């Protein structure tokens, strides 16, 4: 290579190498400081696209877990109210047995019937008043039945207030096979339980009321059993969603997160190369002085 003064090609080469090494050093510094291997699309375009889709699914799965937990809270609220209704039905059957015996006169049976009617009214009040976040659960609004024809109706969420069974959505898509299912809760008012016009003011009426109360208790137990089964299903759904989110987070981490040991090795390598390039650039910048020595010599 000729000794020239117009162009310092060795300095230009050293500067170019320094720029490259310093840029790689900056990338390593960014990755180590952020903990991310993929910080922008230039690092890994395909990996970034896959990572963002995974992040969206992970966030959706976490929200799905919260949705399922809210559904469990709703079911527990309904079950708690049904437990109180259970106590009322047991008391009503106790009163019916009391009024069915022949050792009480008509006035005494009327007194017993007054408590019996109060219990029936309280059952209806509880069924109409029990709600979760404004959603009434025991008055038949979630039974999935048309109030007039008693025919089955499907969930309809097109309006501001959905009708039919309550829809619990927990998946990342909108496929009924894996992303949501419905919860139905039958009507638990006294009339819906078969106790409409039921009384124990006479011995015969009290005896007939025993059968109605037995069927009412069975109907109530079926509602509670359905809620208990649905709660167990939701708990299993939460377990599955949690495992799914954990595995997807692991996959996203392998794409997105930096391997600190490997990146630290690369950081030290680029640091040494940068320091070497700086030293050589300083040496290259001093080479034209040799030409000045010849000219001045």
TrEMBL record:
Keywords: Bacterial flagellum, Cell projection, Cilium, Flagellum, Secreted
Source organism, top-level taxon: Bacteria
GO MF entry, a single one: structural molecule activity
Keyword Oxidoreductase applies: no
Protein name: Flagellin
InterPro entries cross-referenced by the UniProt entry: Flagellin, Flagellin_C, Flagellin_C_sub2, Flagellin_N
Domain Flagellin C-terminal intervals: 212-294
Protein's UniProt keywords contain Secreted: yes
Record's function text: Flagellin is the subunit protein which polymerizes to form the filaments of bacterial flagella.
Organism lineage: Bacteria, Pseudomonadati, Thermodesulfobacteriota, Desulfovibrionia, Desulfovibrionales
Subcellular location(s) per record: Secreted; Bacterial flagellum
Family, per entry: Belongs to the bacterial flagellin family.
Any one Gene Ontology cellular component term annotated for this protein: bacterial-type flagellum
Domain Flagellin N-terminal stretches: 5-141
Organism from which the protein derives: Paucidesulfovibrio gracilis DSM 16080
Gene3D superfamilies recorded: f41 fragment of flagellin, N-terminal domain, Flagellar export chaperone, C-terminal domain
């Amino acid at each position: 290579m000729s000794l020239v003064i117009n162009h310092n090609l060795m300095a230009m080469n050293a500067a170019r190498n320094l720029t490259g090494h310093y840029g790689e050093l900056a990338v390593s510094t960014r990755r180590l400081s952020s903990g991310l291997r993929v910080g922008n699309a230039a690092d890994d375009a395909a990996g970034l696209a896959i990572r963002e889709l995974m992040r969206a699914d992970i966030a959706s799965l976490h929200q799905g877990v919260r949705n399922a937990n809210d559904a469990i809270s709703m079911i527990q609220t309904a079950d708690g109210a049904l437990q109180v209704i259970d106590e009322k039905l047991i008391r009503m059957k106790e009163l019916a047995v009391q009024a069915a015996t022949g050792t009480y006169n008509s006035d005494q049976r009327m007194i017993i019937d007054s408590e019996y009617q109060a219990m029936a009214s309280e059952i209806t009040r509880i069924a109409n008043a029990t709600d979760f976040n404004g959603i009434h659960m025991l008055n038949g609004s979630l039974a999935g039945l048309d109030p007039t024809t008693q025919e089955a109706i499907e969930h309809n969420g097109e309006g501001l207030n959905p009708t039919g069974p309550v829809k619990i959505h927990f998946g990342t898509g909108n496929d009924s096979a894996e992303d949501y299912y419905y919860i139905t809760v039958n009507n638990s008012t006294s009339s819906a339980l078969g106790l409409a016009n039921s009384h124990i003011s006479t011995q015969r009426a009290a005896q007939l009321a025993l059968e109605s109360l037995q069927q009412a208790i069975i109907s109530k137990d079926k509602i509670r059993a359905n809620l208990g089964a649905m709660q167990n299903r939701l708990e299993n759904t939460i377990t599955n969603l949690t495992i799914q989110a954990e595995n997807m987070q692991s996959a996203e981490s392998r794409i997105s997160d930096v391997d600190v040991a490997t990146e630290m090795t690369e950081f030290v390598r680029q640091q040494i190369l940068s320091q070497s390039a700086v030293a050589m650039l300083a040496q290259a910048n001093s080479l034209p002085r040799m030409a000045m020595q010849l000219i001045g010599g």
